[in-house]
Predict the structure of Electron transfer flavoprotein subunit beta.
Amino acid sequence: MKVLVPVKRVLDANVAVRVKADGSGVDLANLKMSMNPFDEIAVEEAIKLKEAGIAAEIVAVSIGPAQAQDTLRTALAMGADSAILVKTDETIEPLAVAKILKSIVDQQAPDLVIMGKQAIDDDSNQTAQMLAALLGWPQATFASKVVIADGKASVTREVDGGLETLELDLPAVISTDLRLNVPRYASLPNVMKAKKKPLEEIDAASLGISLAPTLRVISTARPPERKPGVMVGSVAELVDKLRNEARII
């Protein structure tokens, strides 16, 4: 079974976000970039499937600038077998991403696409659903457990009422939630081996897919600073403030 894992290069989750002075977006200059955390979980799950003898090949794919090679090399160091970079310097919206991924799926013919449920830079949570719709494949989102057997995928996901388990015919699209697994760190020997693994580059323009944006960001601003807490001297004072000052939304 071949597994395709899309990964995205985003601002590292541990780096403080800076808004540009003109409010036009987030300032990424000279800041650490990393693989989207939800995509790390997807890579880890694909590797677990390979270690279990279920998957035979893992292909990582990323859409972005030349620097996204670093993100793909991380996936290769974790355990992916090969990688594809769809190169573009444009800002790509979820629908265009889904269309590009569909083109890659048509070329690679994987049995499973497993990807993060969302990217932490825009939190759109749209690409997996759009890709499944374009492919006409079944989908399961927010997976917290994945079991592959007999040409089917059993996916457990958290819902408001508890846990829901779906059974999908393969090929399928699955998006991962945080509780699915804990991604491994790439060892130094594997980092060195990753440099020799195949990484193919494709010009996004060659796919014949429109990358023109359909949305325009009006402005970007930091959230307002939280007001400091208030110390109370007694339970009676606390109750009084809760009754007369607190806002319960």
